[in-house]
Amino acid sequence: MTRTILTNARIVDPSQNMDETGAVIIEDGKIAAIGATAANDLPSEGDIQDLQGQLVIPGLIDTCVHIGEPGGEHRETIASASKAAAAGGVTGLIMMPDTNPVIDDVALVDFVQRAARDEAIVSIYPAAALTKGLDGEQMTEFGLLLDAGAKVLTNGRKTVKNTLVMRRAMTYARDFGAVVACATQDAYLSGGGVMNEGLFASWLGLPGIPREAEIIPLERDLRLAALTGARYHALKLSVPESADAIRAAKAADHSVTAGMSINHLTLNETDIGEYRTFFRLSPPLRTEDDRVAMVAALADGTIDIISSAHDPQDVDTKRLPFADAENGAIGLETLLAAALRLHHSGDVPLSRLIDAMSCRPAQVFGLPGGTLAPGSRADIAIVDPDYPWVLSKDDIVSRSKNTAFEDARFSGKVLQTLVAGATVYRA
């Protein structure tokens, strides 16, 4: 039997409403005991680590991660993404299906799982395409894909335009008990836009994307979710009107949840500055008032989940004029550090932040982890919440370097990441 003992730790586990000083005892990759009571009855043998008051939390679960492999290995591989995840305290992630080829059949779900077993140091869960080729017209074989190991059905970056297809997809997904996770960006309204529509876009001379491009497809999807009884998750919301729609759907007791990227919780449209393409995202960065309102929606639980929206792009797609650059920024290794800004500012309690990045993702998508309860797998992040550091491009683990936080100052750093009790990252 292998045993690891973490002593003198501040343990925050929202799944148990726990915030106390104590110990964590890990035996054979699982939590054997935890908390103040465990500290009073420590085993005499084992690998003992005195954490000196550092923070112990459940490993993060990132629910929206784009990886290049297969077809775009120059941007990111399953192996490189897993290393970036470990550096950010992420012990599990959901991989989006918009690869080349698209993950829309059983063979590709199997490929991702085999590659993850062989090459990844964290848990990687494949998402399956909602429609063939993500074209929004023909549904995939939901039952076969889910049986093969897919954890969610999604059209990735694309919104399904055909309302009838979306209704049928939700109906079938309901029968399988699967979650349908959707980006909500109207292709026609957002068509030529590259940033948030408003005064700042006018100053920069860039075409804007109205907030209605997000709200209209979201409200359509919520209506369909109510009609079909499907489990629906909005992947990346960004405006308060979207939060209002989610709040109303939850009040009506529909099975809906909502996520946001850490980018939209900590950045706003003015960060674009002088046409900095690393800040070209989908949905676009919004106004500061929108950001503040969405932080409040996160704090009150309307927004369930925070994701990194990790989307690696190489220099050929980012070092271009702003209007020609691709959307997306990497974010796995900065997810927790950026989120801690909301804690240090006093806007969101620490337990709610951890809940949104570990416990709720596990609950919504039925994944292992998200808890430090005795008997659970020991997926753990050890964090110094006050450690000051600056993100340098040279320190980025991800294969791509298109971060929205280059040279950003953070307070809070992941010191160690454990997956099933084994250390996969140490700062």
SSE map:
Layout: E1 3-13, E2 18-27, E3 30-35, H1 36-39, E4 47-50, E5 55-58, E6 60-65, H2 78-87, E7 90-95, H3 106-119, E8 123-126, E9 128-129, H4 142-148, E10 153-154, H5 163-176, E11 179-182, H6 187-190, E12 195-196, H7 199-204, E13 208-209, H8 212-228, E14 231-234, H9 240-251, E15 256-261, H10 262-266, H11 288-299, E16 305-307, H12 315-318, H13 335-344, H14 350-365, E17 380-390, E18 409-419, E19 422-426
Parallel strand pairs: 1-4, 1-5, 6-7, 7-8, 9-10, 10-11, 11-14, 12-13, 14-15, 15-16
Antiparallel strand pairs: 1-2, 2-3, 5-17, 17-18, 18-19
Helix pairs in contact: 5-8, 8-9
The domain tally reads 2
Point out poorly predicted stretches: none
Quick check: average pLDDT? 97
- Which band does the percent of strand residues land in? 15-25%
Number of beta strands: 19
CATH class of the largest domain equals: Alpha Beta
Percent in helix: 25-40%
Secondary-structure arrangement, i.e. CATH architecture of the largest domain = Alpha-Beta Barrel
CATH superfamily of the largest domain: Metal-dependent hydrolases
| Global outline | globular
Distance between the termini: 27 Å
